[in-house]
Amino acid sequence: MELSNQSITSLRKQLTSGDICSADIIGSLADAIEKKDGEIGAYLSHDLDAAREAAKTADLSLPLGGIPIAIKDNINVKGQPCSCASRFLEGSYTSPYDATVISKLRAAGAILYGRTNMDEFAMGSTTENSALGNTRNPHDLTRAPGGSSGGSAAAVASHSAIAALGSDTGGSIRQPASYCGVVGLKPSYGRVSRYGLVAFASSLDQIGPITQNVEDSALLLNAISGRDAMDATSLKQPDTDFTQGLNDGVAGMKLGLPKEYFGDGIDPAVRHQVDKSIKKLEAAGAKLVEISLPHTEYAVATYYIIAPAEASSNLSRFDGVRYGNRVENPNDIIDLYRRSREQGFGPEVKRRIILGTYVLSSGYYDAYYNKAQKVRGLIKRDFENAYQKVDAILSPVTPNVAPVIGADKDNPLQQYLADIFTISANLAGICGISVPCGKVASDSGSQLPVGLQILGPHMGEQAILKVARAVESSD
Length: 475
Known about the structure:
Helix 2 packs antiparallel against helix 3 (48-56). The protein has 15 helices and eleven strands. Strand 10 and strand 11 form a beta hairpin. The protein has an eleven-stranded mixed β-sheet, sandwiched between helices. The chain has helices spanning 8-17, 22-40, 48-56, 100-107, 150-157, 174-180, 214-224, 268-283, 299-314, 333-344, 347-360, 365-386, 412-417, 423-428, 461-474; strands spanning 43-46, 68-72, 111-116, 164-167, 183-186, 207-211, 254-258, 287-291, 392-396, 431-441, 447-456. By secondary structure, the chain is of the alpha/beta class. The chain has one domain: Amidase signature (AS) domain (Amidase signature (AS) enzymes, Alpha-Beta Complex), CATH 3.90.1300.10.
C-alpha cells in the first residue's frame, strides 16, 4: 500500500521501527498530489521541498514526529500564504506568525507543507465560493466535496494528504467529511485555541481534524487541544489522551435519536445507511432513546443572523489600508474602502456582510440579533436537557449526498439548508463528529459516501470518539 494511503498510526509504527523515514512519506504524497490534484484541486499551494528538508530533522520520538499535515487556508502558518481563498489576500499576505494549533503541531513533530482550498473566508457549503478555483469530490468529479473545508476533506479522501486541519463554524468540518467519506471532528467550543484562525464568526468557529480514521482524529486532538493565553475563549482542561478507551465499545451507552433530525426531507437512501449504522450500535449493546430538541426548527434562521453579524464585524478590518490587496488610484479614502472591498470580496461574502450589517443596524438589532441570541440560549438548553438522559446523540450529517457542482450555485438558501443538522452544535458549543457509515449509488453509477453524525455534550469528545470508533469497527 502506498504510504500516502496509510493512517497516522500505521505510519508512526513504521517510522519508529525504522522501516521508513519521513522523507519517504513526503515522496509518496508528492506523487499522489502530482497524479491526482490536477483534477481534484484540493490544494491552493504546497512546498514539498521545504517539507523534505524538515523531514531530515524530524524527531521521531514525538507523537506526530515525521507526519505531514495539510492546513486549511484560513489558519496562519509562519512563512506560508494565508489567502482564505479570497482575492482580497491572494498573493499579498504571507503569515508572519504561527497559529497556536500550528505551534502545537510543530511541538508534536508534525510537518506543515500545504494549504487546502476552501469557501472564501469559510462562507459556504460546497467550496464553490472559493475565489481561487474549484475543488472536486474524489468519489465523483462532477460533485462538490462540501465546505467550507472542502479542500482538506478532498485531500484526505484522495490520499494526497495523510490528515488535515479544517475549521467548523456551522458544519464546515463534518459536512465535507461526510460528502468525502472521511472522519471530521468539530471539538467543543473552547477545547482548541482559535488564535491564528482568520475569524468568520468568533463565537462559533472551532478548528478540528479531518482524518482517515477515528484514532487519527484522537491523535490530532491530543496535539492541538488545551488552554491558550492568546485566546480568552479557550478553556483550562485536564490532561487527556483521547485515544484511551476508543475500543471499549458502546455497551451500556445511551444514544439519543432526536425526532426533529429524522423527519421529512432526508434522502431515503441516506436515511437507510444511517439507520443501518444505528442498528449496529444497538446490536453492540447501546440503548437507543428517542429525544426531542424542540427548538431545532429555528436553528437555521438563528445561525444566519448571528454568523453574518459576527462576520460583518470581523471582516471590517479588510479595508485596503492595513493589509491585503487594494485598488489603484482611489479618489479618496471612502473610494479606497468601497472599491477595495467590492473587488476583493466574492458574492457570498458580500451577501453575508450585508445581511450581518443589516441585523446589527439601529432599529433592527433588537428585532433580529438580540432575539437570535435568546433563541440560541434555548437551543443550548435543549441539548443540556437531552444530555441528562443520553450520553451522545445520533443523526445524519446532511439530508443528501454530495451535490453536483453548480446545482445550487444560484440558490444560496438551498445551500444554507444543507447545514440543518450541523449548525445547532456550533450554536450550543458542543462537540460533534462525522464518521463514514455507507455509500449510495448515484445516477451516474458512482458510489457517494454518507456520514453518521455523533454529537456529545460540551467537552464530551471521548464519548463521541468511542461511538465513532464502534461505527467504524462495524463496517
